[in-house]
Amino acid sequence: MTDTAPILFFDSGVGGLSVVAPTLALLPRAPIVYAADSAGFPYGTRSEADIAARVPALLGRLVERYRPRLVVIACNTASTIALPAVRAALDLPVVGTVPAIKPASAMSATRVIGVLGTEATVRQPYVDDLAARFAGDCTVLRHGSAALVELAEGALEGRAPAPDAVAAELHGLFGQPGGERIDVIVNACTHFPLLEGDMIAVAPPHVRFVDGGPGIARRIAYLTEGQAWPDAPPAHRLVFTRLDARERRIANGLAARGFAAAEAL
Ligand code: DGL
To answer: Which residues neighbour 92 within 8 Å (Cβ) at sequence distance 6 or greater?
Structure first.
């Protein structure tokens, strides 16, 4: 492996940037390839079969092209459905994204936790399993929101989300029976931490938010411990499976964060 071998982050859209940020905080010299499956976006409203077929094939092509040292599936939907298949198909370490139910359980005083993800993620048996293993004495309420995913994408294109629209999505949790007792919300979609400030602004003041980003960053640092990095990393690369005007607007916004012009897969 060369010093310049990148870490490949994969998501349906821009959500994985919420995992890139804590990773670069720990590994500032790591070269990043950020790949967004814009042609397949959004994942949250797709079927399990669709995601299970799509994600391993795409990651195979990306690995062949970019030769990363490590792959990060920075997407809860893809991870909860396709992580074992991706690991079986690739001959390199693959880090997935897991809804942060365990840390949420450690934080909750009321023992009522909200899990906010995509519709596909919140219906996964994997989430039932995490809730049973790590939050067995908690009520775990779930809400799948495609609207928040769109709002996060829009924010990266420069459109600030309307507070009412964000509040309406949180009501999907708080409006459920027992929802008024929620004191921790798990951002179980990587897009949602990008809107955390907007959510805090409209949520009751005692509610705290948690996501998997910092834990994934620590895992990446652990798996790459002792590996060499370039002294001056090249510009990070940005790859889209469909490269239209929308993706170019996002890419323009990301230039300030050290990303080169967008490429098409
Ligand atoms: N960012 C993704 C996740 O973590 C998926 C968003 C979508 O494409 O629906 O689940």
So the answer is: 63, 68, 69, 70, 71
Q: Is the distance from the beta carbon of residue 96 to the nearest atom of ligand 1 less than 6 Å?
A: no
User: Which structural domains are found in the chain, ordered by start?
Assistant: 7-97+214-264 (3.40.50.1860), 101-211 (3.40.50.1860)
Amino acid making up residue 151: L
Task: List residues with catalytic annotation.
Answer: 75, 189
How many CB atoms sit inside 10 A of residue 175's CB? Answer: 12
241: which DSSP letter? S
Alpha-carbon separation of residue 134 from 58, 154, 214 (angstroms)? 32, 34, 18
- CB neighbours of 49 closer than 8 A, spacing ≥ 6? none
Positive or negative CA dihedral for 136, 170, 116, 220?
negative
**Distance (Å, whole) CA 251 – CA 265:** 15
Q: Which amino acid is at 167?
A: A
Closest C-alpha to ligand 1, atom 2? 75
Res 233 pLDDT > 80: no
For ligand 1, say whether the CB of 100 is within 6 Å of any of its atoms: no
pLDDT tier for residue 226 given thresholds of 50, 70 and 90: very high
Q: What is the pLDDT of residue 180?
A: 97
Residue range 33-63, pLDDT digits in tens: 999 999 999 999 999 999 999 999 999 999 9
**Ligand 1 proximity of 193 Cβ (cutoff 6 Å):** no
Q: What is the mean pLDDT of residues 147-161?
A: 94
194 CA → ligand 1 middle, Å: 12
Q: How far apart are CA 220 and CA 179, in angstroms?
A: 34
